[in-house]
Amino acid sequence: MVNETQHTCSASSSSRSDGGSSSGSESSKDNSRCSTPVLDADRHERLREKMRRRQDAGDKWFSLEFFPPRTANAAVNLISRFDRMGAGGPLFIDVTWHPAGDPGSDKETSSMIIANTAVNYCGLETILHMTCCHQTKDEITGHLQKAKRLGLKNIMALRGDPVGEEWEEEVDGFNHAVDLVKHIRNEFDDYFDICVAGYPKGHPEAESYEADLRHLKEKVFAGADFIISQLFFRPETFLKFMKDCQAIGITCPIIPGIFPIQGYHSLRQLVKLSKLEVPQEIKDVIEPIKDNDAAIRNYGVELAVSMCRELLDSGVVHGLHFYTLNREVATTEVLKRLGLWNEDPRRPLPWAVSAHPKRRVEDVRPIFWASRPKSYIYRTQEWDDFPNGRWGNSSSPAFGELKDYYLFYLKSKSPREELLKMWGEELTGEESVFEVFTCYITGEPNRNGYKVTCMPWNDDPLATETNLLKDQLEKVNRRGILTINSQPNINGKPSTDPIVGWGPSGGYVFQKAYLEFFTSSEIVTALLKVLKKYELRVNYHIVNVQGQNITNAPDLQPNAVTWGIFPGREIIQPTVVDPVSFLSWKDEAFALWIEQWAKLYEEESPSRMIIQYIHDNYYLVNLVDNDFPLENCLWQVVEDTFELLNSPTQQ
Amino acid sequence: MVNETQHTCSASSSSRSDGGSSSGSESSKDNSRCSTPVLDADRHERLREKMRRRQDAGDKWFSLEFFPPRTANAAVNLISRFDRMGAGGPLFIDVTWHPAGDPGSDKETSSMIIANTAVNYCGLETILHMTCCHQTKDEITGHLQKAKRLGLKNIMALRGDPVGEEWEEEVDGFNHAVDLVKHIRNEFDDYFDICVAGYPKGHPEAESYEADLRHLKEKVFAGADFIISQLFFRPETFLKFMKDCQAIGITCPIIPGIFPIQGYHSLRQLVKLSKLEVPQEIKDVIEPIKDNDAAIRNYGVELAVSMCRELLDSGVVHGLHFYTLNREVATTEVLKRLGLWNEDPRRPLPWAVSAHPKRRVEDVRPIFWASRPKSYIYRTQEWDDFPNGRWGNSSSPAFGELKDYYLFYLKSKSPREELLKMWGEELTGEESVFEVFTCYITGEPNRNGYKVTCMPWNDDPLATETNLLKDQLEKVNRRGILTINSQPNINGKPSTDPIVGWGPSGGYVFQKAYLEFFTSSEIVTALLKVLKKYELRVNYHIVNVQGQNITNAPDLQPNAVTWGIFPGREIIQPTVVDPVSFLSWKDEAFALWIEQWAKLYEEESPSRMIIQYIHDNYYLVNLVDNDFPLENCLWQVVEDTFELLNSPTQQ
């Protein structure tokens, strides 16, 4: 009874404090004076609350299960998949615990690191699986502490499979998932949301279906927040299971696990592992087409859609959990057919937010990392508090060093051979570099017929927004203004604008025009003369790799270049040009020439020396046109610069 | 090599932090994340730095001396004078120490409280005089501590006049101004800027002119930052004095004290006190016109202008200090003739900033106190940190109680008889109240022929900006929408706009339309029906005196209603509609009905009961139109409300 009251208490108090803050430091007086305008309730809710809110609102949702990859390259691909499938709007994803793969380690393929990447770098609500058998309490606690440190907030508590054939209980060990649930609640109180597994047909090792239901109830009463079911083949299996659960007093959400059949072999393997029996009607369809992958997948999609519809129509199912097998096509297809795939073009902020709890008030970033958000997150991962409302004139934002350019979530998705094809097997001079930049902007194939779909400073094709500036960008890149970041000026477009909009609806978004590029010292000299004419209208920062720094920024204050005005809210200014951070970015931007481009070539090769020359001699320039309601003057600045260079009297 | 790079980094960052902040608490990590964009360098500089900067820039400046008033009513008038003369742009004002008037006490006429008012409520850089003779060290320290606590940053250190005829040095006491200078530096280090007096003709009690110069040098070497001179009648007197000072090694600024002759008697009295001799050429002019005040003042102005011109033309004088005798006309005239009176229409923020050092980062306030800024400052005087950048969703901003509505700096400038003429000797019903509001808006005389130039919620005539809304306001007040605060919507006017502009030049200012009024519950009922139609476009808060609170504000978040975008800076949003503060304001706004209006009438009188009825039954409403780029819809909301009220089906 005491325990029950405590539970109620902590539940209600947690629902309050979670809305605002979790750590002591956040609720301090100082912070309350400049806290976030809670743009996005999602950022402040825990998973079980999101689930409840969606259910209360009658919103159906889905979630996606992945397993850790085997190789570093597969990890790079999986992260891209997280980004792509994350766009469909899963309520959460989960990452399985792979005991054989050193799951709690810092390896780039470990369960822990994959889940960490999903939360911090892809901004996804994530559940990390954890199994407990064959592990000591200290090991488990260590894993949980690490998960908490990394910003993981949800654990799927599992027993795990015994290693040998014989199952033997360990004295004082963790023998059942319920032991893990209790341990988490004992050691971490209410910090984690806990999920447990339910078996619609009963666990294969359980004495009986009824006995297994009682085990499940134990897990819930030990503190689990919701249940995800093992896969099943018939909707009535799950609906009966749900009813039986309720009958014995299990009231938490129970989410059906959906397994779209994607191929003959994967089905066989899964059935073997889960010890489930495939119903005869399914076998009858599959056997004759077992060598036709496409046919099986189509059938699997069909089957899953019809089962999901039945579940949703029952009125008792509010969310669907998909066993993706790390594949995209079938699950995405099912979700689209169900109308659950929801590519919401609305963004809470112009950049993708991270899901680490300590970053949930973050709403200002320097613009420089716009195309390298994962690098920004990596370099600021040690920060304890994040800018909220204002960037401020902090004297030295401590950016972590970015030494390992091959960190798997920062690594280019393209292999070396492909990069060489895009960026040139052999460079003949600075002009061949201009050409690469130009092809990236225009989307035209380069002289060898290859499209340039990424650059060292941008691993993705040109943003839709940048497309607005395409013609101008092409012109200047051809002439050696090598652009790596830009945005048009925007004078109050609706926040729902499909290209430049962000934030809640009913608001207005604004931008100052921004242009960032590498260019030669000759051009910089002319540019500086031209900029005098523009006085305070254009703020500039011009640096070279040695750190020579020329600027007209007043008092080294940050310049807000993107902001939004919303109904009933304070003003949000999510991107700034911060002169101090620019010096950290400068190091990264220059290093990318060498790390990602020059190193594609042999040492001492002419190609490598060309890139090295640019690295050593070019300047990195950023320009802001402060007069956002007027026509962007930055193109005129560049035009004037070339005119000055070409005028014989100025030579 | 690695270290060298780091070194370059930190060097460049330290040059920043100098510009940014001076006190220890401001450089803390939390604050650095949301510190002020230093809109106004003035707010961060100490007086001696401002003086140096003006001198370096070749800007001439002036300052004004006042003495504490004798009565509370005179204090009210002096504060208005501070506001009016402050508009001319003095570098500082100073308040003399009046030993007979209990100068360090909390009396509303004390030197300390008058200086406190100038700093905190009028936002003026202020020097408090302090004399030391006949006082113990502890008394002096107590005064200085109090001055510091009140936000005073500058002291004029004086000996003071001996009480009797005989001057007797006290052992271990403060016998000379230099003792006070030393004491301030010993006890308060560099906290205060210290000013001392210089005597162009030598102090009357000094053994000699040369001996007096040596005393002056002692005072400077003991830590004084600059010198203000005693009055004199001929420019050459001062210029010689300056030269003599420099000759013996006094290098700090020396500011000539200018005394515009304003009348025969005041001249005689001053001459008696200062033991100065009036030159014969001046006596010759004055004696014949001694009964013609206007003639003497004109002559005095003429004389002062010509002397000031000569001083400024000398090239060694950069600022002029005026002995105003608490009068406006002559000094203002001299300053205007000299071209030094500089009514800068540009405001650093839309509201007048306070000069207390702890408020120097403050840049956000709730809009409610727009017409009662002194009340806002009073009620927030105990705050330790002030909102900067964001108001934040602080759950309970602790506003001090405003119990004493007769605090002299909050008191109406008009006496009871005048208020009765404006607001009605006898009210006949709610309509007579509507009439008072309407007359205040239109500027037309009321039925008894008196103009209504102030209201309980606004002690000054209608703001220029509000005039933009005059016709609409008139219409609604006539019908019982009793407006007390409003602003039009502004969609990006230049920051230099003479009416709505503020902040540095080159920026753009914005506003959401705002309307705040008292009205009957009948109108509120109809209004609420109408507001449904406007959904999120209009945010509203509707409260009555009992605290019934109806709102559609999301999560009780503040709504920014005034903001500005400036070159090279973060965004400033100086006014917000904060739902939580509104409840504190509500208490004040309702209380003003009783304290300032109802109490003009006898208890139980019909007039008093009418005001009491309104106080008890009306609602206070505020409306924000979030769609600032569109035409203000709030008038339509009111129009729709009256239409609904008049439609027979809805009655």
Q: How does the overall form of chain A come out from the CA principal axes? A: elongated
**Alpha-beta content class of chain A:** alpha/beta
What is the end-to-end distance of chain A?
89 Å
Query: What is the number of beta strands of chain A?
Result: 18
Largest sheet of chain A: 8 strands, parallel, barrel
Stretches with pLDDT under 50, minimum 5 residues of chain A: 1-39
What is the CATH C-level name of the largest domain in chain A?
Answer: Alpha Beta
- What is the CA-based Rg of chain A, rounded? 28 Å
Question: How would you describe this protein?
Answer:
2 copies of one chain form a homodimer. By secondary structure, the first copy, chain A, is of the alpha/beta class. Helix content of chain A is 39%, strand content 15%. In chain A, the strands form 3 sheets. An 8-stranded parallel barrel of chain A has the order 1-2-3-4-5-6-7-8, surrounded by 5 helices. A 5-stranded mixed sheet of chain A has the order 9-17-16-12-11. In chain A, helix 9 (235-247) links the parallel strand 6 and strand 7. In chain A, helix 6 packs across helix 7, helix 7 packs parallel to helix 8 (209-221) and helix 12 (293-313) runs parallel beside helix 13 (329-338). Chains A and B meet through helix 2 and strand 16 of A and helix 1, helix 2 and strand 16 of B.
Summarize the structure.
Two copies of one chain form a homodimer. Chain A has helices spanning 2-20, 29-32, 47-56, 72-86, 111-120, 137-149, 177-188, 209-221, 235-247, 264-274, 280-286, 293-313, 329-338, 373-379, 416-423, 430-442, 464-467, 470-478, 521-534, 579-597, 606-617, 634-646, and strands spanning 61-66, 92-95, 126-131, 154-158, 193-198, 226-231, 254-258, 319-323, 365-366, 482-487, 490-494, 508-511, 513-519, 538-544, 549-551, 559-565, 572-577, 619-625.
